Amino acid sequence: MIKKLAKVVAAAAIVGALVATAVTPASAVVPGIKSGLKIAIMPKAVNIGYFTAWNKGAQKACKEIGAKCTYVGPTEATGPAQVQFINKIIQQKYDVLVISAADQNAIVPSLKKAKAAGITVVTSDADVAEASASSRVVSILPAASSRIGTAQVDWIAEAVGKKGSIAVLSAAATAANQNAWIKAMGPYLTKKYPKMSWVGGTVGKSTFYGDDDATKSTAQFAAILSQYPDVAGIISPTTVGVLAAAIEKKAKSAKVKVTGLGLPSQMAPYIEDGTVKKVGLWNPIDLGYVAVYAAARAESGTFTGKVGTSFKAGTTTYKVTTGGVAFLGDPFTFTKENIKTFKKIY
Amino acid sequence: MKKKYTFGWDQGVSVFLVLTVVVGGFISEYFATIDNISFVIQDVAEIAIIALAMTYLIIAGEIDLSVASILSLTSATVGFLFRNGTSFEVAIVGGLLVGLLCGLLNGYLVTVIGLPSLAVTIGTLALFRGLCYALLGNEPVNELPENWIVLGYENIPGTFLPWSAIPLAILAAIAWIVLHYTRIGRWTFAIGINPEAAKFSGIPVARMKLGLFAMTGLMSGVAGVVYTLRFASASPDGAVGYELSVIAAVLFGGVAIAGGIGTLWGVLAAVLSLGAIRSVLQLIDFSANALLVVSGALLLISVVAPKAIEIYQSRRNSAFVTK
């Protein structure tokens, strides 16, 4: 008990010292943002590399705006587990909560409570259900669904020199995310890259399904090559597919170019040896960074989160679109230059 | 002798609860606030409601590991019915019926077919969870009527008590009176102490056990409705692992895992203690990882400590022990 008290006193002293140092250089603070905000950064679950990276971005923003940020959350990624921590945030009278929703419904009542207690809530990385959008100020998400698709067309065009025919190696035929992205690829290719085409005539007829299964994706990759020997490039908008494609391309020394959405930790060997030039995915660091700015500005009264308004994070301005969502923009890309750093993160 | 020991443990847990609250109030200014007390009660409500029934079952020498799955299946049924057009009230009644049926199925397999409850309820744990997915798919139901879901997170007007405190208080009072002041309660203890002797003294052992399983199913159903309202949604993966929290609370409350011993008050004090400890640790920014260790250690203590005390006391009073 005495030891515990001593610890609490010591912790209080340290916090006091931190607050003192944070407040002193008042000039370092960003205009339009109150300094000394108490901000909670809550992942779906702690102990996940992806969220450690997300928090890294959040902490960077916190440092810039002179806020005191705490990374706090459950060990299991469920809504009910997060609810206990949201309550803790309410009790401890935080000013701001930046959260990645582990469950798009279960945490909504708690977020409403937090809002009623005067806490500014911003979701980042994963949002609450559309019907419950009023439980947070704004949501910071990676990229608009159509842009995730079209960005990959840009990458493959760059890889093949803007000419030749391409194919898609997707996940399951029923995968909603992938289907939305692929749908956006079709018209974009025709419009932006007139010298390029789809191997099967249309994007639909050029899409192969690997069902997010390594073996099946490998077989589908081989099927594309034998069916269309002239194929110049393959987009695989799923981490399983793009990895299988990279492995198989290397094994067969195939000339076809490959890109898509890949995890840097898995893709690192193939990017480092040049098998694949570029893959992309969203960058959790930016998600955390931008969310803290949005939340801090909302708490400071200089940003409402209403559709059509915008806010500045660092040097970039972000606009709130339909549904109270601000997108980061293009997916983040990994190349030989930055893969070393990111493969350690997620 | 046995009776005196039980009394001691349940008092001990009550003292432990008071200590947790007092110490908690000292080490965190946020702990003993009206809002937080309301939250802790809300947070443990489902576990407490199921623990009421589980207390009877373990005292009678049985166990039910499928309670969390029944909770979730009730919730899934409510969501399923509501999504398919029934009124929310009808959906709740339907959910409770499903809970009762689940309990009856467990009871039937144990008492009529004669299988051990541990094995039966491990099976139904998986079965009922599977049915949740069959009912809802991967699509949670989330647009529940607002006038109902406010009951899940608001307090009773003018008090610091959450709405879930009402069913909890009523059910706890009934469970307490029945267990300690009626024939059904005495039969429950008698069955747990020695089922053979109970049978020969004219107690309808099988019917009693069937009733206890059915009641546990129904209580899990009530907890399922509370859970649905609290999280404003019905999803197939709700309350995973709650059965362990329930059993931990019941054992920590002084109910002997071998049956025959226990008090309802001890179990209630244990449920609240566990909720209060978790809240204190969270509020003093104890790391989430360490929190897992603490809850695991408490579970272990709750099983080991009563046994250790029993052994210690029986050595001291070996002359008086009849068992």
UniProtKB/TrEMBL annotation, chain A:
Pfam families from the UniProt entry: Peripla_BP_4
Single GO molecular function: carbohydrate binding
Residue span(s) of domain Periplasmic binding protein: 39-300
GO cellular component, one term: outer membrane-bounded periplasmic space
Subcellular location: Cell envelope
Gene3D superfamilies linked to this entry: 3.40.50.2300
Main subcellular location: other
InterPro entries in alphabetical order: Bact_Solute-Bind_Prot2, Peripla_BP_I, SBP_2_dom
Species this protein is from: freshwater metagenome
Protein name as it appears in the record: Unannotated protein
TrEMBL record, chain B:
Membrane topology: Multi-pass membrane protein
Signal sequence, start to end: none
Primary subcellular site in the record, as a coarse category: membrane
Keywords, in A-Z order: Cell inner membrane, Cell membrane, Membrane, Transmembrane, Transmembrane helix, Transport
Alphabetical list of Pfam families matching this protein: BPD_transp_2
Compartments where located: Cell membrane
GO cellular component terms given for this protein: plasma membrane
Transmembrane segments: 12-31, 88-110, 156-179, 210-232, 244-274, 286-305
Name of the featured protein: Unannotated protein
Organism: freshwater metagenome
